[in-house]
Amino acid sequence: MSNVSLMMYVGNMVRIGILLCAGIPLVRWCSGMCAVFCGKRFSHHMGVIVGRIIFYSGILFIAVTVLHEFGFNVTALLGAAGVLGVAIGFASQTSISNIISGFFLVLERPFSIGDIIKSGDIVGVVESIDLLSVRVCTLDNKLIRLPNELVLKQYLTNLTYYPVKRIDCILSAPYSNDVEDIKAQIYTVIKNNGLFLHEPAPVVMLHKIGQHDYDTETRIFFTVRVWVTTDKFSSASAVLMQQIKDQFDTNKTIITVVHNN
After folding, report:
1. 25-30: long-range contacts at Cβ-Cβ below 8 A with a sequence spacing of 24 or more?
2. Number of domain units in the chain
3. Does residue 198 sit in helix, strand or coil?
4. 238 with 246: CB under 8 angstroms?
5. Dihedral sign of CA atoms 238, 242, 247, 249 in order
6. Based on the domain organization, do 174 and 231 belong to the same domain?
7. Residue 85 and residue 15 share a domain
8. How many Cα atoms occupy the beta-carbon half-sphere of 17 within 13 Å?
9. Residues 38, 85 within the same domain
């Protein structure tokens, strides 16, 4: 090997070393900065997607440059990659559909990381929103992977989108009880607990006078509606039922819960 060739070879190796040692950390830093910026400016979901696009694009650029330094015909490789990409595209239409659906989810933003969603029969906390799927941790601590296309196609409920939520329940009492007295006692329970909001105002009203499906006794049915902050929603219903029971146990009145959400 001549001195000129040796110098060229050493120069190529030095450039490749600098490119790898400086390029990869630089790509990581740029993708991280862009992810943080987009996360603060738009949403955490958008930040994650933008960061990953920049990272993989940067790595691809470095890989192509390294191959060029080694003397490979990059144009031919890109042409072959294009043909291979078309073949792979036909074979992976589902994946492409999920990627496109993922971008629609980014633009529409029906939920964010940390929200509790219901998609089909799945209820859980959104842990990540990736290019192909949404990862959800169910309330009993199971990991569920939901394809983006499926999330976009079917009905989806964001249970934590708004800051307050309403609890609805239906109670029944013996027909002989005084309606206004029952309502007053339920209002007392709601008023004395700071868990329940006063605005929007709670509602206690007569629902119907009739019978249970499993009984022939005529009873009075009441609808109770109270509002709580979203972070207290999961426990507020049980607290309300317990305090109503305690209130009516004191007065020797039998209250039956017909419906509770």
Report:
1. 26/58, 27/54, 27/55, 27/58, 27/59, 27/62, 28/55, 30/54, 30/58
2. 3
3. coil
4. no
5. positive
6. yes
7. yes
8. 6
9. yes
> Would you call 185 helix, strand, or coil by DSSP?
helix
pLDDT, tens only, 30-69:
888 887 887 777 666 667 777 777 887 888 777 777 776 6
In what side-by-side order are the strands of the sheet with 122-129?
143-147, 133-138, 122-129, 116-119, 156-158
| 226 lies in some domain | yes
Residue 67 contacts residue 9 (beta carbons within 8 Å)? no
The answer to whether position 96 is within a domain reads: no
Does the predicted TM-score (pTM) go above 0.90?
no
Of 75-79, 115-119, 245-249, the least confident: 75-79
Helix, coil or strand: residue 164:
strand
Task: For residue 100, tell me if it sits in a domain.
Answer: no
**Which residues touch 85 (CB under 8 Å, ≥6 apart)?**
none
